[in-house]
Write a structure and sequence with these properties.
Number of domains of chain A: 2
Radius of gyration of chain A: 19 Å
Shape of chain A: globular
CATH topology of chain B: Rossmann fold
Order of helices and strands of chain A: HEHEHEHEHEHEHEHEEEHHEHH
CATH topology of the largest domain in chain A: Rossmann fold
CATH superfamily of the largest domain in chain A: Aspartate/ornithine carbamoyltransferase
Order of helices and strands of chain B: EHEHEEHEEEHE
Largest sheet of chain B: 5 strands, parallel
Helix content of chain A: 25-40%
Strand content of chain A: 15-25%
Number of strands of chain A: 11
Strand order of the largest sheet of chain A: 7-6-5-8-11
Oligomer: heterodimer
CATH class of chain B: Alpha Beta
Helix content of chain B: 25-40%
Strand order of the largest sheet of chain B: 3-2-4-5-6
Distance between the termini of chain B: 5 Å
CATH architecture of chain B: 3-Layer(aba) Sandwich
Chain lengths: 313, 173
């Protein structure tokens, strides 16, 4: 049995079976991470380049750890300290790196569709670590893994995604994945941050009242909020946002049940999430980070199998 | 298709193997039993059941090992992993590895590499239900054997279990 895809570009391309295979394999990798030797030699013949054209610490470290735990050799590329600043094109950059016999590419880019473009032009397997406002598939997968781990299932689960839905690749990947796995989704936030036709496009609920969304859901996935996006001011101030959409202890305690609180990070403490909520026993934010390494190990392992990848062709 | 062990013979062989292993490992404090996923588990589950009837059950340390990530053919074909559960240290212990069929020896080679990443055992011994002797591709030999058979490369040994396949039987295809 194999994945139905050669690259991990988005949850959009995955079947339900693909997702189950990835999550089940991630469970086994999570066990590896509890062993005295937290490594397996499965990818020791593979070289992976982490091509990060956008800044990231958390995702890049998570991928790097996952690659090292699989025994792969890793190369890190950050756009600022490279020839991209001299005007080298994306394709030239990647082809140069591939000439050095690199087998897989993990890429984050500010342009939506950049990894899809790359996949059409190079033979290596590509993992999308976030492209513009399109998708962040490994985040979607680790969020689902964390929900399944905490609550035992995804089918029928009620998940509220809260914040800047319009510009969030994390929200997109979460929505695709949760719908494919039979969960119910509500997006909540200020009207200026929720795309106009999202309800019809994805068959999800839209809620502008935060408390109603929280009373409905089993899990709240809280997204990071920025005041300005591309010089457009989409709400009056961070303080206004946090008054209407910020999650704190008092709000959580006022609900009729205990919900699970998630956040992809980094948290703007006091804006979308207060410390007394982020650090509470209802929060699984740190487990999300731990699960991220296991999920990325699973994705890399599953994409590496078969004769297409690796120098022994 | 030829039957190598029928239901009754299979049960007797498992009992005999369990007694043999226990005979050489009566100091259970220093012994751990590890079944190899996915099919060795059916043998080891049954053997542990027998062993637990002969000695205080809580003294029997039993774990399961999946070797998918240590295979030497990872790049040729994708294999999905099974569960590993070794809830004890193997440092300075006598490890008894249990599998159903010993053929080329590559699975056991992978199992030993996996074990070394869990600690430094004092000793590793191998117990198999079926030994396809003269078919080894690596220098690996069993310490406890249920039944030795001669087979050629085109043949396959299948171990069937009631829980999964409807009957207990070992056949040569």
């Amino acid at each position: 049995m194999q994945l139905s895809v050669k690259h991990l570009l988005g949850i959009r391309d995955l079947t339900r079976q693909d997702i189950e295979i990835i999550l089940d394999t991630a469970t086994e990798f999570k066990e590896v991470l509890q062993r005295p030797v937290k490594k397996v030699p499965a990818l020791r013949d593979i070289t992976i380049v982490n091509l990060f054209f956008e800044n990231s610490t958390r995702t890049r470290i998570s991928f790097e750890l996952a690659e090292k735990r699989l025994g792969a050799d890793t190369i890190n590329f950050t756009a600022s300290s490279s020839s991209v600043s001299k005007g080298e094109t994306l394709l030239d950059t990647v082809n140069n790196i591939l000439s050095m016999k690199v087998d897989m590419v993990v890429m984050r880019h500010s342009a939506s569709g950049a990894p899809h473009f790359l996949a059409r032009h190079i033979p290596a397997a590509i993992v999308n670590a976030g492209d513009g406002i399109n998708e962040h598939p490994t985040q979607g997968l680790l969020d689902a893994f964390s929900m399944r781990e905490k609550l035992g299932r995804l089918e029928g689960l009620k998940v509220a995604i809260i914040g800047d839905i319009m510009h969030s690749r994390v929200a997109m990947s979460n929505i695709y994945l949760l719908k494919k796995m039979g969960a119910e989704v509500t997006v909540a936030g200020p009207p200026t941050l929720i795309p106009k036709y999202i309800q019809q496009a994805f068959d999800i609920r839209v809620e502008y009242n935060l408390k109603k969304a929280l009373e409905w859901c089993d899990v709240a996935n809280v997204l990071r909020i920025q005041l300005e996006r591309q010089n457009q001011v989409l709400f009056s101030s961070l303080r206004e946002y946090s008054l209407a959409y910020g999650i704190n202890r008092r709000l959580l305690d006022s609900l009729n049940k205990q919900i699970v609180v998630m956040h992809p990070g980094p948290i703007n403490r006091g804006v979308e999430l207060d410390s007394d909520a982020a650090d509470s026993s209802q929060s699984i934010i740190l487990q999300q980070v731990e699960n991220g390494v296991a999920v990325r190990m699973a994705a890399l392992y599953l994409l590496s199998g078969g004769t297409e990848v690796g120098s022994r062709k | 298709m030829k039957t190598i062990l029928n239901e009754q013979q299979l049960a007797i062989t498992i009992r005999r193997l369990s007694h043999q292993v226990l005979e050489n490992n009566i100091e259970l404090d220093n012994t751990v039993f590890i079944g190899i996923q996915p099919r060795g588990i059916f043998v080891s589950d049954q053997m542990i059941q027998v062993i637990r009837q002969l000695v205080p059950p809580e003294k029997v340390q039993y774990g399961k090992l999946d070797i998918t990530f240590y295979r030497d053919d990872v790049r040729n074909k994708l294999h999905l992993p099974n569960h590993t559960d070794i809830p004890f240290s193997i440092d300075n212990k006598n490890v008894v590895l249990i599998d159903d069929v010993l053929y080329t020896g590559r699975t056991i080679r992978a199992a030993m590499d996996a074990l070394i990443d869990f600690g430094r055992p004092a000793k590793v011994t191998l117990c198999v239900l079926i030994d396809r002797r003269f078919s080894r591709e690596l220098p690996i030999q069993p310490d406890y054997v249920g039944r030795s058979i001669d087979s050629i490369v085109s043949q396959k040994v299948k171990v069937l279990w009631k829980a999964r396949d409807g009957q207990d039987e070992v056949v040569l295809l």
